User: Fold these one by one.
Assistant:
Number 1:
Amino acid sequence: MKSRPDDALNLDSETMEKLRKKGVSRRDFLKFCSAMAASLALPSSFIPQIAEAVANKKPYLVWLEFQDCAGDSEALLRASKPTVGQIVLDILSVEYHETIMAPSGHRAEKSLNDVVKNHKGKYLVVVEGSIPLKDDGIYCCIGGKSALAIAEEVCGNAAATIAVGTCATYGGIPAANPNPTGAVGLKEAVPGATVINLPGCPVNVENLTACIVHYLTFGSLPDTDRLGRPLFAYGKRIHDNCERRAHFDAGQFTQQWGDEGHRQGWCLYEMGCKGPETFHNCPTVKYNEGTSWPVQAGHGCMGCSEPNFWDTMSPFYKRLPNVPGVSVEKTADKVGAALAAVTAAGLVIHGIGRAISPQKNDDE
Ligand code: SF4
């Protein structure tokens, strides 16, 4: 008989007792570990290793917040059933997070300094928000220090840093033209730090959890693309996993908000959807415990997980220029044939990328 993943999950009594005290049942724990293995594209044979790491390791973590809207902290705190967020908070020792920590002022700063001093090279950092470099970084200061000075000290001495949200990864909205504060992402501000990027507005907390679980299990961060994003979460285009893709291929497009096509769930490309240009696992993981994501809710993708999206993806309600397979060919056969030809030539991704340019009016 074929063995099931939970057959291999022999948790010892000490681990079971720890889970019981946290109010986590064996069943929920197994579901969580299975989901993490699936998120990380690992075979189920890794589930016991993940379970062992998650149940028994409790690394120190500090969460830094710079030029941001706190949307990523909100995303973390709103994770609920099946208690992914609770498990993260239970398996981590969160020593510093300005928004949720009890101490304030000097006591809060002491918590941060103690971690850096006493656990050098062993703690994890999550950074939310961009870092201003202009005028010696005076546009974002905490406890008398600039965001840059804090990031250099805290991230520079960490085991690893996870930049969450598009502001922390690429500068985001604070870095949009004309970028008055000289905002940049963490990797640019502190090039010597070990950083992985989880862009998105906000970050998807399940991807954050998976990154932490990967680190706990293997002692390293997941493999990334050239933009520093983990391949398990950013390896595929939104367009390739979108539930409206069949309508795109069939040439069925929403032409106006609320029209018949919109009500029927047709493709949002003509309404400005940036899914053909954006890499993220939104269509498969979704948000709010897998409830929905923008395209499912009827709004096009805004490309928020790509660098400089505020400048390069706007106007948000104007369609992308020159995406192969649409606009010229209007029959389903022609659209499908054109897409197949372009895909076979390996030009879909890179061709679309080149099609994005500041001259956005040539598609009207
Ligand atoms: Fe989905 Fe947007 Fe692609 Fe249409 S253009 S299939 S809505 S990602």
Note: The longest helix spans residues 26-39.
Number 2:
Amino acid sequence: MLVVSEEIRDAVGAGRPVVALESTIIAHGLPRPRNLRVAAELEAVVREQGAVPATIAVLDGRPHVGLDKAQLERIASGDGIRKLSHRDLPLAVATGASGATTVSATAFLAARAGLRVFATGGLGGVHRGWTQTQDESADLGLLARTRITVVCAGVKSILDVPATLQRLETLGVAVAGFGTERFPGFYLADSGEPVDWMLRTPQEVAEVMRAQDRLGGGESALIVANPVPEAEQLDPGLHARVLESGLRACAEQGVSGQAVTPFLLDHLARHSDGASLEANLAAVRGNVRLAGRIAAAWAGV
Ligand code: PSU
Ligand code: MN
């Protein structure tokens, strides 16, 4: 069912480090044509850490783990590229559709391919106004039943962060700050919420992963929350202003469902003169680098 590239199949077979990367951020989270450069750059950052990058997407109904240059270009072009969460996978496969995978779909496919470490920007979560819209990203439920380590800069700040942390607790998903006791705020180093556990090194993260397996029980993820460096974060005042106007625009224009996250990310980038985009990229780069180090520690190299 899965098309796993030869390089990744060899690496998994030999127990060498591999890092899964999602494609929704490329197709729907970043502006063209910069997104293609970023996709290539993120793969290069993984390789610098001695790990193999595995960008995941669905092309013509076939889930791919590891994309070549032409396939990456197709995802970045956005033409006919849907946004696929975990629930969309059988529909895309059966109808021959193509799409970029969100955190939930990427984590699902990565785990099926035997990958254990995954890097992204910010997780999906509980949206503001969730009591009315019931909009909670499918990322959370999937991570509650998938054994994978996700390195992220917290959850996107467009969300209701305390409600998201509460849901992760209820769902039994482990969360640890990397070198911090504050839960990161995606564009900001600190979301204003605390995190109960702090890990300091990739080796410590790998120990937690081994403990998850030794304890057994239900399969669930480990979230490693890695803050964007403070020097590269978005100015907090600007962040508050553009976020407020973005949420208002979203409500006025009746944007809902899967369209909410791409709409808000684009609004923030345009109204911050690209500053939110730079903070977003700094966070993603840092996460991908750390994921490479964790994958290496997990593989014991
Ligand atoms: N992180 C980013 N940019 C993104 C996303 C995450 O820096 O575009 C994507 C991820 O793929 C995540 C998705 O799974 O947004 C969440 O979308 P939704 O809220 O519709 O579940
Ligand atoms: Mn949603």
Note: The domain at 121-301 is CATH 3.40.1790.10 (Indigoidine synthase fold).
